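Researcher: I'm preparing a figure for a lab meeting and need a structural model of a single chain. I don't have an experimental structure, so a prediction will have to do for now. The sequence is pasted below. Please return the structure as C-alpha cells so I can convert it later.
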Amino acid sequence: MVGTRSAKLRVVELIHGAGRCDVAELEFWVDGMSCAHCERAVTAELSALDGVDDVRVDVVSGRVQVTHDAPLLQAVVAQAIHDAGYELRSWPTDLHD
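Model: Understood. Here is the structure written out cell by cell.
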C-alpha cells in the first residue's frame, strides 16, 4: 500500500507541476520608457502574466528583467508591453519559441 500511495502522490505532483519550469530570469529591452509611470505600466502588465514572479525595469537603459517559473513566449511578452504602451526592442537570441 505504501508504494501505491507514493505513486499516486507522484502523479499528483506531476499534474500540479505540468507546464511549470524552474525559476528562471529573462532579460530584454523595451523602447519608449522615460519615467516612473512607464516603469509602473510595464511592471503591471508583465506581472499579470502567468508564472511571472518579479519584474525589474530600468527606464534609462530600457532593460527589463523578469523572474518566472513558467515558460514565457515572446509574442505574449511583446503584447503585454504593447498593451502598456511600449515596444519590445530586443529578445534574447538563445531562446526559441
